[in-house]
Amino acid sequence: xxxxxxxxxxxxxxxxxxxxxxxxxxxxxxxxxxxxxxxxxxxxxxxxxxxxxxxxxxxxxxxxxxxxxxxxxxxxxxxxxxxxxxxxxxxxxxxxxxxxxxxxxxxxxxxxxxxxxxxxxxxxxxxxxxxxxxxxxxxxxxxxxxxxxxxxxxxxxxxxxxxxxxxxxxxxxxxxxxxxxxxxxxxxxxxxxxxxxxxxxxxxxxxxxxxxxxxxxxxxxxxxxxxxxxxxxxxxxxxxxxxxxxxxxxxxxxxxxxxxxxxxxxxxxxxxxxxxxxxxxxxxxxxxxxxxxxxxxxxxxxxxxxxxxxxxxxxxxxxxxxxxxxxxxxxxxxxxxxxxxxxxxxxxxxxxxxxxxxxxxxxxxxxxxxxxxxxxxxxxxxxxxxxxxxxxxxxxxxxxxxxxxxxxxxxxxxxxxxxxxxxxxxxxxxxxxxxxxxxxxxxxxxxxxxxxxxxxxxxxxxxxxxxxxxxxxxxxxxx
Length: 479
Prior knowledge:
Blueprint: H1 3-13, E1 20-25, E2 29-34, H2 42-45, E3 53-57, E4 60-64, H3 69-81, E5 84-87, E6 93-96, H4 108-120, H5 124-145, H6 155-169, H7 171-182, H8 187-198, H9 200-207, E7 214-215, E8 218-219, E9 224-227, E10 230-233, H10 241-260, H11 263-307, H12 309-326, H13 333-343, H14 348-369, H15 373-389, H16 393-403, H17 405-423, H18 447-471, H19 475-478
Antiparallel strand pairs: 1-2, 2-4, 3-4, 5-6, 7-8, 9-10
């Protein structure tokens, strides 16, 4: 597969480099923001080698490429970075770098979805790796426990468990980097602010609620709240909202400072003043607001789940992949991450796992039923991606949504699987994309919950596969 050729063909059929306002990518999609979407040729794009489908959603022109998206994106970066040579009036050449400014006006909702995607998508590989390691550790721990061996005291377990926790414990640092990139401000200074929030001395100071603390004479906010019978102390480790608010404010502060400080002094004064100003603003105002906003979001989510986890599981299990179609599932990720930070566990991705397995099952149903070689190959590889690692876009766009009935069946079976998980009050101790490789993430809180999880994904997978095989394809598609 010639990725440079594919990149050039994609660029040509989205209207050329001059029509590209902004470009990012996630696990399976190139996400273009185009100046004029009418210049793009959707029909031709969908026929390009390596392109599965094209989706217009959230103010973005999304080109679905499946597992090859990273290679195609890198090739596109090279094409977009090429300088164009123009001839001056005096006959000399001048080189002008091609730069794309995100100037297109978008609706507030589309802009929020785009920024959330830019902030959280780069973190997903590390989060997925964390979930995989934690799931494997849980499986091995349960296996060795049956033999009377406790592996939790071994050095290997301690190191690997620590590796699985790092992305969450230091989440403010990682989020600071991705937020700063999304809001186009100094990433290193943003990370320094995030690191300050989780620095051991600062964490100890924040959690010591018996002693008042100040910065420049301003009171540093501390606090505690009840969760059931236990008390949770105010802390920024594993937090999500505080650093996001801090970086957003910092981005405006940075622009203001660059306007008033002479360029020759900016390299020292701008980052220095950013730190001096943002630390008290964050510790006194933004951080506490972020903590309480996060707690408020958690209270609403917990309230919905306490009303009926069966209904909650059914809704998430059924509609998760519908959200994937519109790219809106990224907006739900902060809820799950916040759940881990506040409660130490999450059920959002457990229920979403029913959706992942149902999409994989429907794709395998298509593969087993159809006689068309190309569709069989697409459905088979898409089913493996969805079932093994929880990447569902190839299954959704490659066959299920295209054929319609398999998509409907997958939504129904995903809802039933999610409801079963909800009935068992399933949750995991890590934020892990659901697939075969991470199922043991949901064994950490006992075999009863794990059994409900296994039954839920089994119903979602086999139900979708069987119903798709018998009822999901018409005679023309069967071939």
